[in-house]
Structures are given as C-alpha cells and as structure tokens.
Specification:
Strand order of the largest sheet: 1-2-3-4-6-5
Radius of gyration: 13 Å
Largest sheet: 6 strands, antiparallel
Helix content: 25-40%
CATH class: Alpha Beta
Distance between the termini: 28 Å
CATH topology: Aspartate Aminotransferase, domain 1
Number of helices: 3
CATH architecture: Alpha-Beta Complex
Low-confidence stretches: none
Oligomer: single chain
C-alpha cells in the first residue's frame, strides 16, 4: 500500500519543510515512503497523500483540531491509529494554521 505520492504532494512538502526543518533538533527521514519529521528521534508528524498526520497531539489539541479541520484517524492498512489525527492537506489548505498544530506536536517531544 502506498501512503504518499510525491508527485501530488511535493510542492506542499517543500512549503511545510521550509518551516519545519528550521526548528531546532528536527530531522527528516522516509518511513514507508512517507516524509517523517522527528525531534530528538521522536516522531511528531508525517505526510501522506492528501494529508499530514500528527503523532503527538494531546486530547485537547485533537478536539481543537476537529473544530478547525475535518480530521480522521490515520489508517495504516487494516489498523486504525486512533491517537494519530490526519488533517486534510492540499493547495487550498491553511498552512499557517496547520503549522500551528504541527509545532505543538513538535513541542510535546
């Protein structure tokens, strides 16, 4: 199963990485074909086709996310990762607002 399509998401990846990779201690690496972002080796976010998945969002942040975006739990093949909200992402997305949530997850690591 392919989780990430660079052709479709490449320009958004570049825009997000311009900000995310400037944060202290952030590294990137591909896992299962997806660009993943770690802070001190702890995964806090990764890109999938049509979205970004947050791995360190608190319950309060997930509630706030659901007010701002139509989120769903990340689906890894047949496994649903209920604690990992996936935010839709495309060229019309509010990247500034999404980056606020990504930064909060980064700060939780």
């Amino acid at each position: 199963m392919q989780y990430y399509n660079e052709e479709k998401m490449g320009s958004l990846r570049v825009k997000l990485e311009k900000e995310i990779l400037s944060w202290p201690g952030v590294t990137t690496k591909k896992m299962y074909g997806c660009p993943c972002y770690k802070h001190h080796e702890k995964l806090f976010a990764f890109l999938v086709t049509d979205g970004v998945v947050l791995t360190k969002a608190s319950e309060e942040e997930k509630m706030n996310l659901s007010k701002d975006f139509f989120i769903k739990p990340f689906q890894a093949a047949t496994r649903t990762m209920k604690g990992w909200p996936q935010i839709p992402l495309d060229d019309s997305s509010d990247l500034k607002k999404i980056l606020e949530y990504i930064k909060k997850c980064y700060l939780h690591t």
